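Minimal example, chain plus zinc ion.
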Amino acid sequence: MSEEKQAVSLLITGADVVCFDDRDTLVRDGAIAVDGDSIVWIGAASDAAEKFAATETIRAPGMIAMPGFIDCHVHTAQQFLHGKLPSIRRKGELRSPMWQRYLIPFESGLEPEDVYCSGVAAYAAMIRSGTTCFLEAGGPFPDEMGRAADEIGIRGRIAMSTMDTVDDLPPQSRMDTQDALRRSEELVLRWKDHPRVNTWLSLRQLMVNTEALRLGMHEMSHALDTPIHTHLAEGTYEVDFAIKQWSMRSAEYLERIGCLDHYVHGAHSVLLSLNELDLYAERDVSACHCALNNYTMGTPRLLEMMRRGIRVGLGTDGAATRASLDMFQVMHGAVLGQQAVAGTPYHVDPPVTHEQMLKQALRGGARAARLEHAVGSLEVGKKADIVLVATDDYDQFPNYDPVITLAESAVGRDVRTVVIDGRVVLKDGELLTLDLGPMRERVGRQYQTLMSRFDRAIG
Ligand SMILES: [Zn+2]
């Protein structure tokens, strides 16, 4: 009888529910009941009809319900640089290192409204391809990233880039050490009570930070219970820099000054010695594997990290270098990359399956984000960050096994509906939370100015 039904805010029914929990639960023709921001029940669609009276019901036959992706390393502010670097490469004029020659100069030319628009565009692209949470690497005008994330409804950790050395930096990007610390602390405090969008600390990279800033950030991470997002063991330039400065490698140096611990999130983490891998495990450092970029930098030890239980997620590294924020593609890249470096050389096929890598992206990503209690799997009590993926395209039909379909055939463009924190933010491909028109208009007006400014900056 209807009066016995439990009132819930949202019921998703008829989908194959792939939970990615510890027992790898799969409920065919299943349902998920959501109340407020949390999942309250998962079971058979036939039971749900009798149990729940929902304010909103989404019927999803033929769809797969999965947890949302966590992009563990993204540069929000570099969104509109996509397409530009390949065009410079085409002319044979691309120079290294990219971060110094192009990425920092681009960020230095941005105004607050540009970063807001980058956020709107980037987070819309993430949601559209099934990402429900992001970890920002650290960029300019982080409050504008937060404003975009707040309005569009995504979960995220914004961060402010800090660079306090004097050499080779555009003046707009350079900060005084004490100023960098003060502004970082204020940023963390300003966003600490937001239900979805909070702040992490950020150290850009060893070459552009002073030891005083590293020590200050380390102290602050403990005082504010807030992780530090940094690029670590990323490229040969960084390792060479560390060896020249301190006669040791990047992670070994951070260990020596007492800054390597469970608050550190090391993006890329490609060029790690075995000793550094030990340090990651001992100090519970988390890492992000950016599969579309990492294989140009070295031979990433992703599978070793996974086997050792290191908290490692996957990330896009933003749109500037590979122009995609689709985590399905990153996951495929990670499988192929690890096949090439950790499988084929040893006559192992496959060293990791797509299914295992997808689970790593979700569960490992949640651990790297310090959110394993809240996201990364569909389970009662966790936050309702749910993605509905269509399986009606020619390459997926018929859907023999939903987990394999997700892991091997699905891409971001198959995502139809996305729920974040219990709120439907994308329905049948349409973003419900924000009108993207004003952003497109502003970018349309501003794009040429941005690009001319960038061309001048890079000479
Ligand atoms: Zn990066």
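The longest helix spans residues 437-458. The chain has two domains: 2-67+383-431, 69-368.
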